[in-house]
Amino acid sequence: MLITVAILLCGCASNVVPMGRDTFMVEHGGWPDMNESSLEAKCFREANAFCEKKGLVMVPVSINGTDGRVFANNASCKVVFLAVPPNDPRNAPPHLERSPDAVTKQIIIKKEQ
Fold this sequence. Notes:
Blueprint (H helix, E strand, L loop, with lengths): L1 H11 L4 E4 L2 E7 L6 H18 L3 E10 L9 E9 L10 E4 L5 E7 L3
Antiparallel strand pairs: 1-2, 2-4, 3-4, 3-6, 5-6
């Protein structure tokens, strides 16, 4: 019974952290995830699930990560996002820009003017 409760609690645990009004962060990394892209997908799935539970939509603000191909480094990914109602004006297609840094990747989402 105690093992079942522990498994259920682990399954319900969330990496989503509040960062202020409507803004949240989710981060994943470490062994055995050595591919940044798989971690990005994991972060986005978790952020979307978090928002869906609340009847909201996820709007990405920034993505920052490192690939685990460099010796002695594990891959990591951090996604900052807004959780807003579907009809919120902030729920619009983003304009993506890639950071020039070759070691780490950061994508800043900006609204087109």
